[in-house]
Design brief:
The chain has 396 residues and is α+β, with helices and mostly antiparallel strands. The chain has 16 helices and 13 strands. The chain is 35% helix and 14% strand.
């Protein structure tokens, strides 16, 4: 793919690189302009001219921007109006640690000069919080196909295991690269799709099946349906969910869905949730590992459990103690590390990142009770507040 074709007025020293959803332009003949602005849309890039040499580029570089747009769409990437793209497959391979790129990272990735046709990432202007509001989906990563949200990691993996993900791409005329026989490594295919790879249409449940599933769901106040057992999980996501529950000292019961395919398939229909693990509290579906992990980080999980009477309701002081000790280095700030909501919070975040310090964070704007309680708890009236091993070390 010739990304250069999108930009008309360039000298022979200019480079145009499409990387992670951004079109970068730089002129290697002039050190001052080695790093040029990234453009989030084709139209913006096509309007640029090299500041080093005024003459127009050779004819080979004067193709229209439409050529570039057609090539990029051929790679199966869906873009929204802000230039964000849907290629987040490699985030799962990197530990599912989020989809945002800091501005510094976005500026560096184009230096290698390699084009990317299949995978792309949100522009720095997008934050994970913004994507959650935009999509009305509570976690990241998020996978989009031709502008339509397919779901988070749990759902995409389940679709991959069952063959449905491939069907969706084929329906949208998205070409797929031969990957060999790697499907077996990701997980066992569902029994209904082993032969043809297509997902069977949901079938209705009999009264007996519904009664059995509802009995299992309500077997314990906190019930998890996982692959394997709590002692020996058979998939990473089941292991993460079990770890969270154990870390919070939450009593729970479990069911191994690999031991009973009728339960495995039937629960997807009953709960209208296509993947595992699944967490239920007092008979109500909470979600998969992505959602539970997000609730755990925000403190929402304990709040739900206490509201439903599963665990004693925490006092504000106990909640604050738990919050400031949730990470060795804990920052109570306005906003998030990706999108600080005040200058002081931004300064502390940048200082920690510059030093390579790993830290947890909590947005005090999301919980007024915590915001006011911390002022008394720490005897410090302003934010941000930085704690090390539960003790306040920096306040602003």
């Amino acid at each position: 793919m010739k990304v250069r074709a999108a930009v008309k007025r360039l000298c022979r020293f200019c480079k145009v690189v499409k990387r992670r959803g951004i079109v970068f332009v730089k002129c290697t003949a002039n050190a001052k302009h080695k790093k040029r602005q990234g453009f989030s849309t084709i139209a913006e890039a096509a309007a640029v001219s090299c500041v080093h040499l005024p003459p127009p580029p050779p004819a080979s570089c004067s193709a229209s921007a439409a050529t570039f747009a057609e090539d990029s769409n051929g790679g199966g990437l869906a873009r929204d109006g802000g230039g964000a793209t849907a290629g987040e497959r490699n985030q799962r391979e990197k530990g599912r640690e989020g989809t945002n790129l800091a501005p510094e990272a976005s500026r560096e990735v184009h230096e290698d000069g390699k084009d990317t046709e299949e995978q792309s990432h949100c522009s720095p202007s997008w934050s994970s919080e913004g994507m959650k509001k935009f999509s009305n989906w509570p976690t990241v990563p998020q996978l989009y196909c031709k502008g339509e949200l397919l779901g988070g990691c749990d759902i995409v993996i389940a679709m991959h295991d069952s063959g449905e993900l491939k069907d969706v791409f084929e329906e949208h005329n998205i070409p797929l690269k031969p990957q060999g026989s790697k499907n077996e490594e990701a997980g066992q295919p569902e029994s209904s799709t082993e032969k043809g790879g297509a997902v069977a249409e949901p079938i209705g449940l009999t009264d007996a099946q519904k009664a059995r599933l509802e009995s299992l769901i309500n077997y314990s106040p906190v019930m998890v349906f996982i692959k394997g057992t709590p002692e020996e999980p058979r998939c990473g996501f089941s292991g993460k969910l079990v770890h969270i529950l154990k870390q919070e000292n939450i009593p729970f019961s479990s069911f191994d869905i690999l031991s009973d395919d009728e339960v495995r398939q039937g629960l997807k229909v009953l709960s209208n949730w296509p993947s595992y693990p699944q967490l239920y509290i007092k008979g109500e579906l909470v979600g998969g590992s992505d959602i539970v992990m997000e609730m755990h980080k925000s403190g929402e999980l304990k709040k739900v459990l206490s509201e439903k009477g599963v665990i004693p309701k925490e006092s504000l002081e106990d909640r604050l103690k738990s919050l400031v000790s949730s990470a060795p280095v804990m920052l109570l700030m306005k906003g998030t590390p990706d999108a600080p909501r005040c200058g002081f919070s931004s300064k502390v975040v940048n200082a920690l990142k510059k030093k390579g310090v790993s830290f947890g964070s909590f947005d005090i704007l999301s919980d007024e009770e915590v915001r006011q309680g911390l002022k008394t708890y720490s005897n410090w009236p302003t934010f941000p507040q930085l704690y090390y091993k539960s003790e306040l070390i920096v306040g602003m």
